[in-house]
Write a structure and sequence with these properties.
Mean pLDDT: 82
Number of helices: 14
Helix content: 25-40%
Radius of gyration: 26 Å
Structural class: alpha/beta
Strand content: 15-25%
Shape: globular
Number of strands: 22
Distance between the termini: 8 Å
């Protein structure tokens, strides 16, 4: 018995002392949260390795390929597009300034949204304002209520006397444009209690002129992270088992992965692991944890919603079409199908509003969110092209024989994403988001926009979460165990003496 205890004491001391020599962290995922955490840890002297399953960096930041038919210096992102709440306090605004990234203001400079039906009928400003008024009225009332038992936005609308509004295609269009295009969740799944919660840096929204990928590449170069990134490396398992309670939190973490091109398996160890994968990957349990994550973590992962927002880019490769004669039609158009249950909601942006170097009406970016995004996800490219052209016909004079190139996203089908971004789902709580910020066993950390409720679903939320994960990793550094080791050892020896073991 005595020899066994002394054996554990020796192992404890050796592990503690040797661990301070070099602190290592493996970061799973080369999205912006993981890259931010890596940059801070590297500056603190940590040995950092970033494992990315894709053949590119960025994760849900993914700038689209160049426009085919136009020499245009501008880019558009198939993933994150906007820099929300651009201000002197917004971290991504500051990063853009540091990296000399050109930003295009959109909130103030763009014309008002034009609402139009598939039939081509432009909805009057009066009717649009009236629909917005109904939505604002509902939102204000909702902000003053906390349901004892959470309910969905759809049920809240019905229960608060707004049921008839859901029968109005225009009001439903406004709700879908504000909720499902923004939150990316369907109104029957979004929490009424948390819908209006969260923080913002301001009302101004910007777009990086060259796209977000350019910003990340410049950041990686500035922080000298390129050599720390291993692409095409999919992490399949994280083993943080200690084997013995006495050694809990002291042994290294083993990460197993496979090369996506060759399927060659490999494993590596580190003192800590930061899991910077999208919530969709955690929901699919694509990574096997050993031991399984504690119930509080898995409950949080299951409770938080993970929505869908897809984009369609339509390029008229020859002469751009003319618009339906109407001088009031702006550069941002929301097309609402005559039947709300028929897919066809599109939020169209005329790309010439962003880039002056291309002809008006030559390139359009369409957004599909929530309910209609989920339905159209499984459609073929030809089916998406057909419905997109049909939608554009609502306000463009199309003959049907135009030369068109259509590209699209399918974020729900992306194997390393499984969706777009998080939202507060029915019966989820702020505690669910906060639960994912607590380290597991002092060695496994989570980061990503789904861990910061106040700024979830944003690029700056992901950035802030990376900073928080890096800070907590340093806070729980194994050097703390080293500094406390003599005291722990003396305490254990005292106990042995008292009990004459």
């Amino acid at each position: 018995m005595l020899l066994k205890i002394y054996y554990y004491l020796i192992i404890y001391t050796l592990v503690t002392i040797t661990s301070v020599v070099s602190v290592s962290v493996i970061i799973v995922g080369a999205g912006i949260s993981g890259l931010r955490a890596a940059s801070l840890l590297k500056k603190a002297g940590t040995d950092v390795t970033i494992l990315e399953a894709r053949g590119r960096i960025g994760g849900r930041i993914n700038t689209a390929p160049p426009i085919i038919s136009h020499l245009c210096p501008c880019s558009w992102d198939f993933g994150a597009s906007w820099l929300h709440g651009s201000s002197e306090y917004q971290p991504i605004t500051l990063l853009a300034e540091e990296l000399n990234i050109t930003l295009v203001a959109t909130s103030k400079s763009w014309p008002p949204i034009t609402f139009i039906q598939n039939s081509g009928k432009i909805i009057s400003t009066y009717d649009v304002l009236k629909a917005h008024g109904k939505r604002e009225d509902f939102a204000k009332k909702l902000s003053r209520i906390t349901f004892q038992r959470d309910r969905s936005l759809k049920d809240a609308l019905s229960g608060m006397g707004y049921k008839e509004y859901l029968l109005d295609p225009l009001v439903r269009g406004v709700i879908r444009s504000v909720v499902e295009m923004d939150v990316a969740g369907t109104i029957d799944k979004v929490s009424a209690n948390l819908f209006n919660e969260g923080e913002s840096f301001g009302a101004e929204d910007d777009i990086p002129l060259q796209g977000y990928t350019e910003m990340l590449e410049r950041f990686i170069n500035r922080e000298n992270l390129a050599d720390d990134i291993q692409l095409n490396t999919e992490v399949t398992g994280i083993d943080y088992s200690s084997g013995n309670r006495l050694l809990q939190g002291l042994l290294p973490v083993t990460v197993t992965a496979k090369e996506t091109k060759s399927n060659l398996k490999k494993s590596m160890t580190a003192d800590k692991v930061i899991v910077s994968v999208p919530l969709g990957v955690l929901k699919r349990r694509s990574i096997e944890f050993n031991p399984e994550l504690p119930d509080s973590y898995q409950k949080a992962i299951d409770n938080i919603g993970f929505g869908l927002l897809n984009k369609v880019r339509v390029e008229f490769t020859e002469s751009p079409p003319l618009r339906v004669p109407d001088t009031s039609l702006g550069g941002v158009v929301m097309v609402i199908p005559d039947n709300p249950e028929v897919p066809g909601y599109f939020y169209w942006i005329n790309f010439s509003e962003i880039c002056d170097d291309i002809a008006d009406n030559s390139v359009f970016i369409g957004f599909i969110g929530g309910f209609h995004a989920e339905i159209s996800e499984s459609w073929s490219d030809e089916e998406v092209k057909k419905i997109a052209i049909s939608s554009l016909t609502s306000f463009l004079l199309l003959k049907g024989d135009e030369s068109v190139h259509v590209s699209r996203t399918r974020w729900r089908s992306e194997p390393f994403t499984f969706g777009s971004y998080s939202y507060p789902a029915l019966n989820s709580t702020i505690d669910d988001y906060e639960a994912l910020t607590v380290p597991v066993d002092g060695r496994v950390y989570f980061t990503g926009e789904h861990t910061v409720f106040d700024y979830h679903a944003t690029v700056h939320g992901a950035w802030i979460s990376g900073e928080q994960a890096a800070a907590k990793t340093n806070l729980h550094d194994v050097s703390v165990a080293f500094r406390n080791a003599p005291h722990r050892l003396l305490n254990m020896l005292f106990i042995l003496y008292i009990f004459h073991i």
